[in-house]
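Fold it.
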Amino acid sequence: MLEIGTQTHPLPHQNALYILLHRNQVLIESDDQFLIPFTHFQPNSNMNAVYCGKWHEQDIFVCRFDAVPKGFSEIGLRELLFLQDQPHYILLSRAHQLSTWDRDHQFCGRCGTAMQEKHAKEHTKICPSCNLRHYPRISPCVIVSIRKADQILLARGPLAPKDRYSNIAGFVEAGETLEQAVAREVKEEVGLEITNIRYVDSQPWSFPHQLMVGFFADYKSGDIVPAPGEIEEAHWYSIDALPNIPNNATISGQLINAHVTHIKAQRS
């Protein structure tokens, strides 16, 4: 398991393992191996390594390359995440989020001064001019599985594969509770009123820095009206005849499967 704790962050060293990124791709060796020993690649002056934590007592760093080093191939982060078990999924998600924060916060958002990194017990960048601190950004999102008798609601957005259906999801707005965000997103995206909203689980989602907070809810009223530009189609599906859904590496797949199990247990 990944230990992120409050230990002092070390500087990069030869006994650590590294996660290497190029643009939005992960660099891998054979057999989709993404934890790379220091001796397997050549560091360059533009490579800024960010400490991620300890993995089985070994320090882990993530860094970006301007070009793909010799001997490596590229794989999309989403594709690679779907191949992982839960501990490796968390490690990859954290690494990508920290690297994105490092890349996107080179200068102060208040005065434009180049930021300075603080190597201590936290990930933070401090502006030497106005003292503004920047921490890794985390964007809360809600995702909900909705039940109507022995059916659940599944939808497909414009960017999703034509045959894959998932849950309603969206970002939390300023000043909202998570439950309010769930109700609003469902109303906006498919025109339904829901009730009995209850928390189930959460999962980091590195596209680029979301925290997905998962819920169950029950149908209350209304007819499905897909929001133009947001939802291509949405339908009620019997839990005994579900379409293609995301796999269980994602919180969407986990929510759907957990909800189906819960409904079947209630009716047996």
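The mean pLDDT is 92.
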